[in-house]
Amino acid sequence: MTVAPRDPKPQRSAFWERVAPDKIDYRSLVLIPLLAVLTALIIGAVFIILTSGLGSVWPAYKALFTGAFVGWASISETMLAATPLILAGLSVAIGFKAGLFNIGAEGQMTIGGLTAVLVGFSVTGLPWIIHLPLAIIAGILGGMAWGFIPGLLRAKTGAHEVIVTIMLNFVAFRILDYVLKLPGIVKEGRFDPISKDVLDSARLPKILTWLPVENAERMRLHLGFFLALLVAWFVYWLLYKSTIGFEFRTVGSNPNAAKYGGIGVGATIILVMSIAGGLAGMAGANETLGVLGNGQPGFSAQKGFDAIALALLGRSHPLGVVVSAILFGALRVGGRAMQVQADVGVDLIIIIQALIIVFIAAPELVSSIWRVKGGEETGQLTRGWGT
Amino acid sequence: MTAVADDVELVRAPKEVRRARILGFVYIGLAVVIYFGFALGTEGDVTFRLGDTPGEIDLTVSAGGLAIFTSVVFAFLGGVQLTKGFGKKTNVILALALALLAFAFLGWAAAGKSLSLVGMLETTVAAATPICFGALSGVMCERVGVINIGIEGMLLTGAFMGAVMGSIVSPIFGLVAAALAGGILALALAVLAIKYRVDQIIAGVVITIFALGLTSFLSAQLLVENASEYNNPGVLGPIKIPLLGDIPVIGRIFFDQNIFIYVMYLLVIAMTYGLFRTRWGLRSRSVGEHPKAADTLGINVYRTRYVNVMLGGLIAGFGGAYFTLGSVGAFNENMTAGRGFIGLAAMIFGRWHPVGALGAALVFGFADSLQVKLAILDTGIPSEFLLMAPYLVTIVVVAGVVGQARPPAADGQPYIKE
User: B132, B318 in Cβ contact below 8 A?
Assistant: First the structure.
């Protein structure tokens, strides 16, 4: 008896196979995330109704959408906001791939942004082609150092990275406050903690100011956006095409198998946390060298926490992270418009983001609300205290 | 008989041996640091005031002498640690040694001056209270195998509800509402972790993010404009316990405090008795250690987990009200500032035991009050570094002892009934 072959699938052109491969589970990768976002927005509407009344829902969401997407200026702002989120999201995602939960992106951003600023204003006389990369590398190294510590402690003592990274976040904020007040770093004539301005040779150049539209000179989008896309591609290559990435993913899915397969689990953990820290550090450099041009307290502005939500939404895949980061950037930018135009607090965005994670992490919840099939469980991404 | 003892020695994991050795060297290193840093060249006496007013009960010691004594004790502890170790008492000894170190440090900082020890210990208890509630909440959840990282969010929501309901109705009602709010968040955690088997650490982080967003949003929408109406609950005053409150020194620190501290004592006692002396406790612990075995014996694993996680939420919510009703008197955005996570560290340091959790919380509270004290003494150490102290202590504690303490075996693992 031979088993009858299944109906052969219709032949697809190589192009479409590449753009949208058949093997992808579209239900869990596209449908469920979309429904999760939709459900979160609906529940967000309930909060608006409860606090501002039914009449505010439409103006609020209209402002949220137009503020994020309508017009060149809005698109520039959305992509600008997405830039650090892409990098910080990659930082969290690479951790998840190796079974580590990096809640410390916020602190790594803080340290990385700070070290980038220090190089940005103190090294003088270099052309931008050397100075800018130098400042960015300084940011990456600062973040790496801040990611190395929890990695080392996790590998050597078993201290859980969740607690250590959260504590290091608080420590990083204090360090920033302290350093910004030091003489030689604080801006001349200022008594509040704010650093000197980054030299022009270390600023990320703006890239949309040439557009033939009104107020084009106010478009703040800078080169960092494309650097972030480049880094996303690099992380994709690292995770899926390189031996190191294979080791990362093996340690993440089964540390025991990794150990018996000859992978140094401890060294891998340290490396993953350092790379994650470096990515977040670059996100911080991106903020200080790009948008702000100096260091100021709290410049990370919760982006490291948004990164957790969007890494989950993007299923820890670099492409998913980029798409989710643009969505979250849009939420942030639109949220500001919502606060101004509809008088609905911008913190609603945090609620919506938290709800999105809930629905992504519990796909059964979404599929039972919307009566659709599927959505694989995310399962165990992180590890408990003991292991 | 000796053969058995030898076997036990062999079974001891080499990692633990290495850790004990590292701790031993840390002790000796600290002894050297204390000797050269705080003992050499430090002159003058330091007066620790134990009474309400200066001169009532004073304890005057030589600051340099205190440092030398501390240095010797550390060297001794290092020696013991390197030779035979302290076994189960390691954490307790470490905590006491750190307290002694803190006194030597204070003596060095305040040489020639006097400082109110009672005031400092009062601040310690005050700072330890929310951390302890957080840790107890963690013990409650993790003993049945559910990791609760959402404690921070539960504390924050408790603080918010305490302020709002305390302003609108009455502070006592605020307490109840705060506990219930924590319980509701815990129910969400339980549903996600138990029913939908979401990764528990992610579920907990979500709860914290959600609570941060919700309280910030509501506070900006409602509280800022009507602060006197919705955010003005007043602070619950201290209640002096007759007799016990009159004991010098100890009375003021432990028995002349507000309701939160007494509830905390009662909880520690009740949970210790409940977890280790009652049927409920045995069942809870068995669910946390080996849910399948517990299920086979007819214990309802899911129900036990739901009940305990929600009890944990009630505890955390109640403890959160301390921030508004017990100390500050008004809600501020993100006012918990990581105390819930420090509570988790206290739970680990306290080896998942209520009494240990209280002790660990007092260590963290002491780090907090030390920081406040040193800021006042103006030692030349920048205030930012002092503010880091509780967080750094947390990292050191988690790194130093987590490998020694064993969490419940099924901690963090979802249970799937067959």
Answer: no
* Interfacial B residues in 191-220 facing A (CB < 8 Å): 192, 196-203, 205-206, 209-210, 212-214, 216-218, 220
* Inter-chain touch A52–B221, beta carbons under 8 Å: yes
- CATH number for the domain including A245? 1.10.3470
User: Can you tell me the distance from the alpha carbon of B188 to that of B184, in angstroms, rounded to the nearest whole number?
Assistant: 6
In one-letter notation, the amino acid at residue A277 is G
Any bridge partners for residue B116, and if so which? B49
Q: Which domain holds residue A245?
A: 62-369
Q: Please give the tally of structural domains in chain A.
A: 1
CA atoms within 13 A on the CB side of A99: 25
What are the tens digits of pLDDT across the range A189-248?
Answer: 888 889 999 999 999 988 888 888 777 778 889 999 999 999 999 999 999 999 999 999
pLDDT in tens, B104-126: 888 888 777 777 788 888 888 98
Complex ipTM tops 0.90: no
What is the CATH code of the structural domain delimited by B119-401?
A: 1.10.3470.10
Closest by CA to A115, choosing from A179, A22, A168, is A179
Q: Which candidate from A157, A177, A364 shows the least CB-CB separation from B196?
A: A364
CA B385 to chain centre: 21
In a domain, A377, yes or no: no
| All residues at 6 or more sequence positions from A323 whose CB lies less than 8 Å from its CB, including other chains | A314
Contact A27, A375 (CB under 8 A): yes
Tokens describing residue A129: 């082609």
Please say whether the dihedral angle defined by the alpha carbons of residues B306, B307, B312 and B318, taken in this order, is positive or negative: positive
Q: Is residue A82 part of a domain?
A: yes
Specify the pairing of strand B114-116 against strand B45-49.
parallel
Question: Is A28 a domain residue?
Answer: no
**Which residues lie below 8 Å from residue B108, measured CB to CB, with a gap of 6+?**
B37, B38, B42, B63, B67
For residues A328 and A353, is the Cβ–Cβ distance under 8 A?
yes
Cβ under 8 Å to A: B residues 343-402: 344-345, 348, 382, 384-385, 387-388, 391-392, 394-395, 398-400, 402
**What are the residue boundaries of the structural domains of chain B, listed by start?**
2-112, 119-401
Which residues of chain B lie closer than 8 angstroms to A348, CB-CB? 213, 217
